[in-house]
Amino acid sequence: MRVNEDRSVTTAARRSQIVAATIEAIAELGYRQASFARIAERAGLSSTRLISYHFDGKDDLIRAVVADVYTRIGGFMTQRMAGCRDARTALRTYITSLVGFIAANRAPMQALSSIFLEHRFEDGESSYDSSDERDVLGHIEAILRGGQGSGEFRAFDTFVMAAAIQRSIDGLPFLLQTRPDLDLDLTARELATLFDHATRAEA
Fold first, then answer.
1. How many domains does the chain have?
2. pTM to 2 decimals?
3. Could you tell me if residue 44 is inside a domain?
4. For 160-181, what is each residue's pLDDT tens digit?
5. Which of 73, 86, 155, 183 is at a distance of 20 to 30 A from 45, taking alpha carbons?
């Protein structure tokens, strides 16, 4: 039993090592240039066969990368959104926290953006599809609808507003390629203020 447990831990560690190297390679080189050879080099592996041993092809590896980044985002955001007692605070916290995550995790977010733009699975499935979009926008819409119900927010189309908020944040990894010195703390504050003014009810 102990041998199996040790083997399982070793396998998980190796998979995590390969996922981390894949994120690094895609962020630095771009999706199309991030070959198994480049990934193996960054992971310190003696052969690309070690990648194939742990992952059933490129699709399996890319799914693991996406899942890893999503898990990080989910844990980060859940922790920071806990305890928001009103909709305006929740919206500001969502915006500033997500921008903060991007600031602290530039390589994973750059890799994720590159995957969404360029990778398509062998079965034709997109790496970012309509169900992902509904889930992401659904979280913001829930905040917006709650604020409208409480009277904190004015009347507006929650889908349009949610899309505007999310797209302003989604574009930051691309903007950082042009402006790597962009002050993301300032950006977070400006976006939070912008959408607070755009959504709140008139006093």
1. 2
2. 0.84
3. yes
4. 999 999 999 998 988 888 899 9
5. 73
pLDDT band at 66 (very low <50, low <70, confident <90, very high): very high
- Token pair for 159: 């889908």
How many C-beta atoms lie closer than 10 Å to residue 89's C-beta? 16
Q: Which residue has the tokens 């962009």?
A: 182
Q: Which two tokens stand for residue 79?
A: 């922790």
Three-state DSSP class for 183?
coil
Q: What does the chain come to in residues?
A: 203
The secondary structure of 100-146 as a DSSP string is HHHHH-HHHHHHHHHHHHH-B-TTS-BSS-HHHHHHHHHHHHHHHHH
Q: Domain with 176 in it: what CATH number?
A: 1.10.357.10
N- to C-terminal Cα distance for the chain? 66
Amino acid letter, residue 174: F
CA-closest candidate to residue 139, choices 70, 198, 185:
70
Q: Determine the Cα angle at 104 with ends 32 and 135, to 5°.
A: 70
